[in-house]
């Protein structure tokens, strides 16, 4: 029987993707939708300006949107997917966890908190055990799990594949799609025939989240990885798909063939939304490309290519669908991991 | 009196920009236009599919296009601007030089030849003296001077400004406009809602040309700079203006204020096409942007911004108009330098 | 058992879409691929620069591409889908028909010939009987069937739905995607931040093909419809999906409700690629939109919306996926109709 | 001596264009800037997010922005340019007129009022005399003059040129740039790889404003022209420049040559911002194009092209820069007309 789930912040861009992914999902059944005050009491069809590229599911469309409040969510709903603005997430997510809900959240608040697991299942599923620490410390019946920022998710799996060579330094330049900023995040006048070489606080997320994701959890404490990461983030006129240029310096030498092999053989998981292979490696030097490759593995794969040696180590490019693998799909995958591990 | 000049490869994208810049230029008078066989004998208006954003100059429009052959160029023309495809340039430029013409060329052939000056006047005007070596070795009455590739020109002036701190390593990721590939170089199906993470042989140009430009000429031989450069080049859906993310590691520590100061005070030249300031430094972290900043200094300025310290040194972004400062304007500026130095 | 089919001109943009549609098609089995001389003898993977948004099918990738010559196509192949350039189509399609092949062609040559059926199955399947006249006159064992131009296919189904009201005049302005011109048809420098208000010979196709499609076939002769059509065609920076603004003046008055009803209830066919409903009518005045609605009915539906009364009659907008419903899918659908009618 | 002028709503997109045009204007001197409450007391540099493609003028940058209130505007300022949101314009413009200010307004409120002149100087400068009626009726010392909507301004001059042939019916399809909706009016997710076939209330503006502009003023009353106009408006991914497809049916036959002649010889005015020629007619069928032709006549010219006969009359395309000729420049030109006619 499918687990009854809810979506917090259901009307936004990531909320819509969540509904698109959850509606046909055999393990989950959408049973609650919350949004901000202006949507309360409306049907989802009325409340959401639906803009995802598949029609709004009929049954979801007629559900009533409630306030984002634990009292409004039915008790038989065990798992909540959160795509709230981070300030709202910070204010309300702890209340849901205290009330016993397990929250798989895409919101950026609390990602770096010591007792909050920040998880990409294929990379650091073992960090989920941090929830025991969390429950001890906070006295929660519920739990709070985060997935990283979309631009972090894109390159971290490739780093994980290379970790055995000892990563010391990473330079990463991102070319990010406009959907990463939400529906109204980037105006057309800002970006048509243009590029913007800075995304507020995004550089910091790549630099810190990546070190937490590759860190070690000893059962009590999480130690962040010691590699140095320097990111430069750019917004470009693409709809979906973050492309990243990555330079990696490793302790041990790694050849192009070894690096490609490590990526291609990096294991996926036996979870419904984990694609096999996880990392698709292109031989062609001009791939991956956002429009061509963002839907690999139903938008859940990481694409890599252009591997080459440089005077400093390895250089390559990688890409992921920022609103699927990088946001809604990441939260769903964490939900699957939570389900498999008995948290729901 | 204005020097009579010609344009080799006058109908292409850079050729059109050359005409746009040369027509109102007080020191030069367009007196010869050459192109490929299919254009021979036509008026320039008939031969060129004019696509620059100002009307085709009336007098140039009625000139007759000739073959790209020294015999077709009037003898009183002393200086030729070349925007030929590189394979054609390699085949015909030496013949023009042998016939006594001074050629200021944007074509990529021979840029790395030991006796060919590769010049950005504000950066390495002294390399022009390499022409004495060239004439000695080749027995030419004419001369061949090259300007670098558009993506090289964009970041090298900022490196030159920082050279006093001892540049050791440079990582550079480029976001390049489609005009850099010529009118038909990038199809719309390739690039709308997309980005291409590789530009054939472009990475190599940034890495090698930059070291030649910052090299030392001792009167006999040119020694390339020893810094290491690793480039990753991307094509994005912008019309004009190459944006670049640069990381620099220096021997001596350099603060953000020192770096900004070094860039802002880097001297321009007393040549008509050299803008003052040469490098415009933005405080706003999200500048420079291609559509907003590519026409600074009539398209001849370098824009920089986003300076910040990283674990590894300095990071910043820079931008230049790729078909003006990066191509046609670069050749015109070299023409002005040649004129000032008595080569014409 | 699936009919063995071939694709003439298999490496181009429409050829690739044909392969994408035919590979999973249960009624057809790809057994022959032809292309121009430069591709002969290569595997399809080598010959085609694959750019469709799904991976190249493995079995097709390893097939050998042959010359576009009846002698090169196996005898057990009965049906050929042609996406040849029109000049090539004009030269070689008759030879295939003479050799006994049935050709479902997207090429523009011969579309207006008196004895060549120009067919949109849902609109004028009865015109297929013109093949009897064709075979009589030309002595062919094979047959030649055409589908209309992509921009014609987009609006003709809506006219067919309104035909009962007596269409007298049609004004149509098109906003066409770049894929309609083939992979290299529109350069990025031509179209980014731009629009082109003319597409060579396209206006004429909308005006003449629409009248043939809505014409009457009496068993011997086809009489074109007498409505007047005036088209103005624009290229805009979209990848796929032609959007059209249509004004219709009818003999009998037609209300918005009646027009919407006529469109929504216009019958689809019991053929695999004919979607149900054929015409999707939006209430929202700002739909259909290319990126949002081009994949309705797997790219085979017509989307309409914005119906309103004007001083002159009815105004509405319509949209179809130009390389699926407007090209490759149109040919496949005609193939299905030919199969159902016993021509193969 | 230059007239001292003010800008109401100075921080928005049109307000910035107004400042770009007024700053170098020899007849006007910017002496007052107003904006909404959040900008009050700030310098213009702080208040405006400057996004026009030339640097913010230094002197204007340091001016203090005041509330949009007659008491805040110095008494020696005679003329105000208004680019307020229409609801704000409706609320505050009458107060300025009552207080004695002459207001040249781009805001859409009151454009269709019987006693408010709606003026394109080259088309209906004589309508300015309606101000006498306005002052009589309203008891104002000041005056209120409007320019039409950007999409109306684009095609009305071409209709004015053809008026002698007796215009009966007009169909017009627009392809409008995103800047027409203001900086945040169209999000990038809405428009990249897309088009939107409806712009709220825009169709109505083309249909009604055009008839007022071509109407006759007998000294007491303005009679609107009787032609019928039907408009269909589309938003496309271009930055600046509205392109329009126009069909005109006239009482008298008009050949293409006559129509082109009428447009080319349509008189400009002896006002600084009125370009000569007013209408530039292209022979090439694929012109005008937004990116290529929007800056003709410094953005104040109308470009036309593609003239052809249809079954119904004449068809052609026209284009104007929507934020210069279609908005800020239109208001400035009306200001020049007001100055010449002694209203200031």
UniProtKB/TrEMBL annotation, chains A, B, C, D:
Organism of provenance: Natronobacterium texcoconense
Alphabetical list of CDD domains matching this protein: ASADH_C_arch_fung_like, ScASADH_like_N
Signal peptide residues on this chain, from the entry's feature table: none
Keyword Oxidoreductase: yes
Lineage: Archaea, Methanobacteriati, Methanobacteriota, Stenosarchaea group, Halobacteria
InterPro entries for the chain: ASADH-related (IPR051823), Asp_semi-ald_DH_pep-lack (IPR005676), NAD(P)-bd_dom_sf (IPR036291), Semialdehyde_DH_NAD-bd (IPR000534), Semialdhyde_DH_dimer_dom (IPR012280)
GO molecular function: aspartate-semialdehyde dehydrogenase activity; NAD binding; NADP binding; protein dimerization activity
SUPFAM superfamilies: Glyceraldehyde-3-phosphate dehydrogenase-like, C-terminal domain (SSF55347), NAD(P)-binding Rossmann-fold domains (SSF51735)
Family designation: Belongs to the aspartate-semialdehyde dehydrogenase family.
Gene3D superfamilies in alphabetical order: Dihydrodipicolinate Reductase, domain 2 (3.30.360.10), NAD(P)-binding Rossmann-like Domain (3.40.50.720)
Source taxon at top rank: Archaea
Active site feature: 150 (acyl-thioester intermediate), 242 (proton acceptor)
Gene Ontology process terms (BP): methionine biosynthetic process; threonine biosynthetic process
Stated name of the protein: Aspartate semialdehyde dehydrogenase
Keyword set, alphabetical order: NADP, Oxidoreductase
Residue span, Semialdehyde dehydrogenase NAD-binding domain: 4-131
């Amino acid at each position: 029987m499918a687990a009854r789930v809810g979506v917090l912040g259901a009307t936004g861009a990531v909320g819509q993707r969540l509904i698109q992914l959850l509606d046909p999902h055999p393990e989950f059944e959408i049973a609650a939708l919350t949004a901000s005050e202006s949507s309360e009491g409306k049907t989802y069809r009325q409340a959401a300006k639906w803009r995802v590229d598949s029609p709004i599911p009929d049954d979801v469309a007629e559900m009533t949107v409630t306030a984002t409040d634990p009292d409004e969510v039915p008790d038989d709903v065990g798992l909540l997917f959160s795509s709230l603005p981070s300030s709202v997430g910070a204010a309300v997510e702890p209340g849901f966890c205290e009330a016993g809900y397990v929250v798989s959240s895409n919101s950026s608040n609390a990602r770096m908190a010591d007792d909050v697991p920040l998880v990409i299942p294929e990379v650091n599923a073992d960090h989920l055990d941090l929830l025991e620490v969390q429950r001890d410390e906070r006295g929660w019946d519920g739990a709070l799990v985060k997935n990283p920022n979309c631009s972090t998710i894109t390159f971290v799996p490739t780093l994980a594949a290379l970790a055995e060579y000892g990563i010391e330094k990473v330079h990463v330049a991102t070319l990010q799609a406009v959907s990463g900023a939400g529906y109204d995040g980037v105006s057309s006048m800002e970006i048509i025939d243009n590029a913007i070489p800075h995304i507020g606080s995004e550089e910091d997320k790549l630099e810190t989240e990546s070190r937490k994701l590759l860190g070690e959890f000893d059962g009590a404490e999480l130690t962040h990885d010691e590699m140095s990461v320097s990111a430069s983030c750019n917004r470009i006129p693409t709809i979906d798909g973050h492309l990243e240029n990555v330079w990696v310096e490793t302790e041990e030498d790694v050849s192009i063939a070894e690096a490609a092999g490590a990526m291609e053989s990096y294991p996926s998981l036996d979870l419904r939304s984990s694609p096999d292979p996880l990392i698709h490696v292109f031989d062609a030097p001009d791939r991956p490309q956002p429009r061509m490759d963002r839907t690999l593995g139903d938008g859940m794969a990481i694409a890599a290519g252009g591997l080459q040696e440089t005077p400093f180590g390895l250089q390559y490019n990688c890409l992921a669908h920022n609103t699927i693998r990088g946001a809604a799909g990441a939260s769903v995958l964490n939900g699957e991991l939570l389900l498999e591990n008995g948290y729901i």
